[in-house]
Design goal:
The protein is an alpha/beta fold. The protein has eight helices and eight strands; from the N terminus they run E-H-E-H-E-H-E-H-E-E-H-E-H-E-H-H. Helix 4 links the parallel strand 4 and strand 5. Bound molecules: D-xylitol-5-phosphate and zinc ion. D-xylitol-5-phosphate binds next to strand 2, strand 8 and helix 7. D-xylitol-5-phosphate (DX5) binds next to strand 2, strand 8 and helix 7.
C-alpha cells in the first residue's frame, strides 16, 4: 500500500564499481537518493574489510548527498572526530560494539552529526529502551553485517514494528533505517511496518538502470 511518507533512500556504495567511482557518484548525484550509505568494516567486528578514510575523503569531494556512515568496527569512539572531519552527516555505531553506548551517542551529537545505533539481527529492540530518546536513527540490520547481496531476514519486519512502538511510547524523534537485502518487495513490506529509510546496495548498483531503481524505491 502506497503511503504519503517521504522515504529516505540510501544507496550503499559497497556495491559500486570501485574502479570507476566517479561514474557511480555522478549517477548518485543525479538520482533521487537522499543519502549515500558508506559501509566501513574493520575485519574484526565483521568478517570483512571494506574501505576507510582516504576513500571517504575522495567520495566526499564529489558527492552532493548526505553521507550516511555505517561503522562496522570495534572501538568506534576513537574515530568519531575523523568521520566528522570527513563530512559524515549521519554516523551509526553498532550496539554490539559499544560498551558505553550512551557516551558514544553523545560524542557523535556533540560533533554535530546525527547519531545512529545499529542492531544486528539477533539483538532485541528492547535493549534501546534507555537510549531511544537520544538517538536520531535506529538502524536495523536485515542481514548479518559484513557483505552485500545477502538474503533479507524476514523477522526484521516484526522488529521494525517493535522499534516503532518503542519510539512512539517514548516520544522519540528517531527514524528507522533498514539495511540489507532491500529491494522493491522487501522495501514495500518494510515501509508498511514503519520503516523511514531504506539502504540498498546490490539492488541499486546491480540494476540495469540504477537511476530508475532509485526512483522506484523512492516512490514506494
Ligand atoms: C552489510 C552492509 C550493507 C550492504 C547492503 O554489511 O551494512 O549496507 O551494503 O547491501 P545489499 O543491499 O546488497 O544487501
Ligand atoms: Zn550498511
Amino acid at each position: 500500500m502506497k503511503t504519503d511518507k517521504n522515504i529516505i533512500v540510501a544507496p550503499s556504495l559497497l556495491s559500486a564499481d570501485f574502479a570507476n567511482l566517479h561514474k557511480d557518484l555522478d549517477m548518485i548525484n543525479r538520482s533521487e537518493a537522499d543519502w549515500l550509505h558508506l559501509d566501513v568494516m574493520d575485519g574484526v567486528f565483521v568478517p570483512n574489510i571494506s574501505f576507510g578514510m582516504p576513500v571517504i575523503a575522495a567520495v566526499q569531494k564529489e558527492c552532493k548527498k548526505v553521507l550516511d556512515v555505517h561503522l562496522m568496527i570495534v572501538e568506534p569512539d576513537k574515530f568519531i572526530s575523523d568521520f566528522q572531519k570527513l563530512g559524515a552527516g549521519v554516523l551509526t555505531v553498532h550496539y554490539e560494539a559499544c560498551t558505553h553506548l550512551h557516551r558514544s551517542i553523545q560524542r557523535i551529537k556533540d560533533a554535530g552529526m546525527k547519531a545512529g545505533v545499529a542492531l544486528n539481527p539477533h539483538t532485541p529492540i528492547s535493549l534501546l529502551e534507555e537510549v531511544i530518546e537520544d538517538i536520531d536513527v535506529v538502524m536495523l540490520m536485515s542481514v548479518n553485517p559484513g557483505f552485500g547481496g545477502q538474503k533479507f531476514i524476514n523477522n526484521t519486519l516484526d522488529k521494525v514494528s517493535r522499534a516503532k512502538e518503542l519510539i512512539l511510547r517514548k516520544n522519540s524523534k528517531a527514524i528507522i533505517e533498514v539495511d540489507g537485502g532491500v529491494n522493491l518487495e522487501t522495501g514495500a513490506k518494510l515501509i508498511s511496518a514503519g520503516a523511514d529509510a531504506l539502504v540498498a546496495g546490490s539492488f541499486v548498483f546491480g540494476a540495469k538502470d540504477p537511476l530508475d531503481t532509485i526512483a522506484k524505491l523512492k516512490a514506494l
